[in-house]
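In response to reviewer comment 3 from the previous cycle, which asked for concrete evidence that the modeling workflow produces usable outputs, we include below a single protein chain processed end to end. The sequence was submitted unchanged, and the resulting structure tokens are shown without manual editing.
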Amino acid sequence: MSTSRFSPTKDQQIFVVCDSASIAAGDIAEVLSSLKILSGDRSSAMSAEGAVTLVFNGYDNDPRELESIPEVREWFAKLFEAWPYWSFFASRIDQTVPLVLTLLLPGETVAGEPGMVGWDFDLDELKPLLFEMFKYQNELIERLGIGEDVNERSSRDFLEAVHAFFN
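The workflow returned the following structure tokens.
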């Protein structure tokens, strides 16, 4: 995990690198340990709120979108099960929020432009997914003693990023 100055709302942007070898092996341990540090205490969580960017390495030559690659979806579902706090931590200024949602939403592969494959989402599952994400965020907020004002602002920022993606 590396950091650099980037986010207009935070002092840092935190890059979480997910490599194809770990994904192919179904191994979330390295990424999970980095993420657990962010959610381990109030100070860490507050400094990482809305600053985590997901980077997937090793898929540049794959014509499929990340969300349509079965092993990526399975790996991320496993990661989400172990660390479900994306609504609080996902960067709002890049494609991390849409990526998290598209990796978690059920759907099906569809043909795109020649040589490209896309993914068609089941948007009926969006609301239940958001409720689940916010349930975990509320648990995190309570466990770390983060105020409701931060919870509300963070939820609003996340929902704005969701809305921007789907509209």
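Confidence is low (pLDDT under 50) at residues 1-9. We consider this sufficient to address the reviewer's concern, and the full set will be provided in the supplementary archive.
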